Amino acid sequence: MLPTILFSTFVFLYGIVIGSFLNVCIYRLPKKENIVTTRSHCMQCGYQLKWYDLVPLFSWLVLGGRCRNCKAKISVQYPIIEALNGVLYLVVFARFGVSIECLLFCLLASALLVLSVIDFRTYEIPFGTNVFIAGLGLVRILTDWSNWAEYVIGFFAVSAVLYVLYLLTQGKGIGGGDIKLMAASGLLLGWKCNILAFLLGCIIGSICHVIRMRVTKADHVLALGPYLSIGILISALWGNELIGWYFSMLQF
Questions:
Q1: Which sign does the torsion angle of CA 41, 17, 233, 76 carry?
Q2: Is the dihedral of CA 198, 235, 130, 26 positive or negative?
Q3: Which helix (H) or strand (E) holds 215?
Q4: What does the pLDDT look like over 100-123, one tens digit per residue?
Q5: How many CB atoms lie within 10 A of CB 216?
């Protein structure tokens, strides 16, 4: 029990550290800014943050959510993303334990978190996040080579249909970023789980967006990326079990 608690604590702390970097990606990728070489700074006064200003979660709490120099408010997004990424890493670890799947799906969760926030705000999925997920898919194929065909088919299973829809509607029915996302995720999940991920994403997106339109008067235009991301993550964690349950129900 003690080793499990210690390792889970390590996984959460690692998750919030990565979450701090995700905030950098969320802010800079839409602006085409460098996410590696440019030092972190206050968006209001330009104050370059010291290492003790960058401790995930704790620095924001200690500073009261304000810049140390100019006292401008720091968005609550920063601790939320850090904590959420830590929780997602814990969920993935609880599901897969110490394994290659745990590593791949933790990184997948982080990429999905970044693209979801960016797509929700800008209606655009960064190309780099899709490339990153596709890279995870290539690693998945190499580590599960006996099932390589399932992942290659997964690359086309959903994305090919969406691409036809894209052509027929001249880009009005689906976004190019969504097509690339489903291609990349198919390379990581395989065709069965990727189809499930797409169906879940569409169902969740339809329900949530109708509620948003009724409650907040949100525009009818739907940023599908966040909902596809939820579907992809659910399918990555429990897809095989859900598919098995569904087919077992058909036998009754």
A1: negative
A2: positive
A3: helix 191-215
A4: 999 999 999 999 999 999 999 999
A5: 8
